[in-house]
Amino acid sequence: MMDRLPFIAGNWKMNKTVGEALDLVRKLKASISEVEGVEVAVAPSFTALYAVYKELEGTSIHLAAQNLFYEEQGAYTGEVSPMMLKEVGCHYVIIGHSERRQFFGETDETVNRRIKAALGQGLKVIFCMGETLKEREEGKTFSVVGRQIEGGLRRFGEIEIKGIVIAYEPVWAIGTGKTATPDQAEEVHRFIRERLERLYSREIAQGIRIQYGGSVTPENIKGLMSQENIDGALVGGASLKAETFSKIVRFKEM
Ligand code: PEP
Predict the structure, then answer these.
(1) b/e per residue 45-72 (b: at least 16 CB within 10 A)
(2) Ligand 1 centre distance from Cα of residue 234 (Å)
(3) pTM score, two decimals?
(4) Closest residue to atom 4 of ligand 1, CA basis
(5) Is 169 an active-site residue?
(6) Residue 109 catalytic?
């Protein structure tokens, strides 16, 4: 089995002013700077990206944006292009988060276009997917996640897929305090990896990191990370405090 570097990312969503973002990132630098063997990224809101980038210079913590638009420039009021994100120091961009799909009309097709635009600008992508509670209860988890993978990755070859990290985030677990059990999460992660193998190759599928997201805390991270196909976490609520996020990043020490 291939060794995949664990990857913990904090999605700050629509939280933190620039001042608050800087305060958090300074505390994070102090608490996780010497942690090795784990990749870390934080995703502040657009307004705080550049300030956080400057504060992160010289550290190994990566900067991520929470979204982008797929056009290069033009009359798209309120949107932000891949180049703009690159310019302010972003390394990653989160695409297809369930809140974007639910509240802002994102579809597999627009997710696919966004991923393509991000990769074209040299950004790495955290590509989110996951089923709703209703879909799970109706036994549709695998068909929904399968459709999201294939739709989001449509027309991508081996070069593109290497720039992508997948985040499996069951919608019923996001911000609800209801985490998927390690077994429930592992079952879907295994399914995703098998689907990637079918779409690409065993080697490629083994190399792709799949994060879990949905009410991850310092208390449940260890159990999740002990699963064979869980390679990290996309953390919402618990990433807003340095104390909880740094404990999650330090999961190996537990
Ligand atoms: C998220 O929004 O990506 C997320 C997983 O949120 P939370 O950790 O708060 O459930």
Answers:
(1) bbebbbbbbebbeeeebbbbbbbbbbee
(2) 7
(3) 0.98
(4) 236
(5) yes
(6) no
**Which of 7, 8, 13 is the pocket-test mutation for ligand 1 (most atoms within 8 Å of CB)?**
13
Dihedrals phi, psi of 191, to nearest 5 degrees: -60, -45
Rounded to 5 degrees, φ, ψ at 74 are 130, -165
Distance CA 253, CA 28 (A): 17
Closest residue by Cα to residue 196 from 144, 234, 220, 161 = 161
Query: Which contacts qualify for 73-80: CB closer than 8 Å, 24 or more apart?
Result: 80/46
Find the 9 Cα to ligand 1 centroid distance in Å.
10
Q: What is the pLDDT of residues 68-115, one digit of tens each?
A: 999 999 999 999 999 999 999 999 999 999 999 999 999 999 999 999
Structure token pair of residue 60: 């190994």
Residue with CA closest to ligand 1 atom 3 = 236
